[in-house]
Amino acid sequence: MSICFFEGEFRPTGECRLPVTDLVIQRGVGVFDSIRIYNRRALALDHHLDRLRGSAICAGIRLDGIIDKIRDAVRTGVQRNDCPDGGDCLAKTYITGGDVNEHGRFPNPRYFVIFESGPAIIEDEYTSGVWLHPTSEGRPFPKIKSVNYLVGLMEAAERHDVMECLYCPGGKITETLRSSFFISKDGRLVTAPVGAVLGGITRNIVLELAGEAGLEVDERCPDISELDYADEAFLTSSWKEIMPVVKVGDISIGDGHPGPIAKKLLKMFRSSLDRWLD
Ligand SMILES: *Cc1c(COP(=O)(O)O)cnc(C)c1O
Question: Where would a tag sit more exposed on the chain, N or C end, judged by fewer CB atoms within 10 A?
Answer without folding.
Answer: N
